[in-house]
Specification:
Length: 424
């Protein structure tokens, strides 16, 4: 098979690495890719939103399967463009991707079908939102309705903060048109858990659990980011909780979409909060999480191409999804100043160490080659240093050891990824 991956981040590097293990696959292309993905795939300089060139490339190179990684192209209709051209593609169509593309759509869906989530109100004007905040309970969560690189969520502890949040989202357009509509949501407390799943339109198969660390600084301080690290599995996600979620969240979500005439084929990422009143949905994503993918796929036993094809063909019920009885931790090495202002173009040293040891991975999130052919930093999140271990504590130890193998100017990381496991 010839496979094309759309995207160029850590998630796509992990997907390329996993696809490269499939005996079904002969050639991998990635558009646009990065310096790490280039080890497994031929990188093609095509934007993730240039569907015409992507489709033309797929036809010219007789691509058998295309995987769309990021949220932007999915919400904009990448899967539709490939399907219209008669090409096989893994990822939800534009209609189904609204599950992530519109917070108000997903909240209304949960409300209509009784899927547990936080109470909420939706606003199209800043005046209405500000009026509501005069009497709303604090703290409160404000969410941009559209996509915002995983950063369009504001936790407001006071009424003043909430008003400033409305101004930032709706008036200052901090996230552009994504903030034209906002969702004001009840603040929930508890452990957060990320659960990825494969869906073929009717069947949902759950992957192993993970936990992300969104804040930029140690102790969950600082600004929201795309994710500073993850661990898998979550020790707080018990068999009892999984059974509850299967019955009240996972299967009902797929049934709800079908009832609305939406056939969802691809990945549903369930962002959960384990509250005192039981698990509730924080958010849905319509694709692999980043950096959750970097700890989930190294633990997956299956040939991922077989699973992708089963999702497309509606035969996911025939797949026995299996994961190793081990653990993984990912520590993100970022450019100092991320998620705001940072410099790039610095050479990355020490990557050869990962070729010498099994169970250690450097998944590239923001890298490219300079004119000398050296890998250099090219983003806020640069690398996801991932390591396996027999348990979470060993995996964490290995990940932080491996994080020291790599150096680049302005390197920054959190030092407490997975610290929550010490409480278990």
């Amino acid at each position: 098979m010839k496979v094309l991956i759309i995207g160029g981040g850590g998630r796509e590097h992990a997907i390329a690495w996993k696809i490269a293990q499939s005996p079904k696959v002969e050639t991998i292309y990635c558009a646009p890719g990065n310096a790490g993905i280039a080890e497994f795939a031929e990188c093609v300089d095509i934007s993730v939103l240039d569907f015409d060139r992507q489709v033309a490339f797929a036809r010219e190179h007789e691509i058998d399967l295309t995987i769309v990684g990021p949220d932007d192209p999915l919400v904009a209709g990448a899967a539709d463009a490939f399907a219209k051209a008669g090409l096989r593609v893994f990822g939800p169509n534009k209609d189904a991707a609204r599950l992530e593309g519109s917070k108000s759509f997903s909240k209304d869906l949960m409300k209509k079908y009784g899927i547990p989530t936080a109470g909420y109100e939706t606003f199209d004007s800043p005046e209405e939102a500000l009026s509501y905040l005069e009497t709303a309970r604090m703290p409160i969560v404000l969410k941009a309705d559209g996509l915002a690189l995983g950063k369009g969520v504001l936790i407001c502890n006071t009424r003043e903060e909430a008003k400033e949040g409305v101004k930032a989202l709706m008036l200052d357009k901090q996230f552009g048109s994504s903030g034209d509509r906002i969702v004001a949501e009840e603040f929930m407390t508890g452990r957060e858990v990320s659960v990825l799943s494969f869906v073929d339109g009717k069947t949902v198969k759950i992957m192993t659990s993970a936990q992300d660390h969104k804040r930029a600084k140690d102790g969950d301080e600082g600004l929201n980011t795309g994710g500073m690290g993850t661990f898998s599995p979550s020790p707080f996600y018990t068999t009892e909780i999984e059974d509850y979620c299967q019955k009240h969240i996972y299967e009902p979500t797929v049934r709800a979409l079908r009832s609305e005439g939406i056939e969802f084929k691809g990945i549903i990422f369930f962002g959960l909060m384990l509250t005192e009143d039981g698990p509730k949905v924080l958010e849905y994503n319509a694709r692999f999480g980043d950096p959750e993918t970097q700890v989930v796929l190294p633990r997956m036993k299956n040939d991922i191409v077989e699973v992708f094809e089963a999702c497309i063909d509606g035969t996911l019920d025939q797949i026995d999804l299996r994961f190793e009885e081990n653990a993984a931790v990912c520590v993100v090495l970022a450019s100092n100043g991320y998620p705001e202002h940072y410099e790039k173009g610095f050479p990355i040293k020490g990557l050869s160490s990962f070729r010498k040891k099994d169970g250690y991975y450097a998944f590239h999130a923001g890298s490219c080659f300079n004119e000398k052919g050296e890998p250099v930093t090219n983003g806020g999140r640069v690398l996801g240093i991932t390591a396996l271990g027999s348990d979470l504590k060993e995996a964490r130890k290995h990940a932080y050891e491996a994080a020291q193998w790599v150096s680049f100017e302005n390197k920054y990381m959190r030092n407490d990824i997975g610290k929550a496991i010490d409480d278990v």
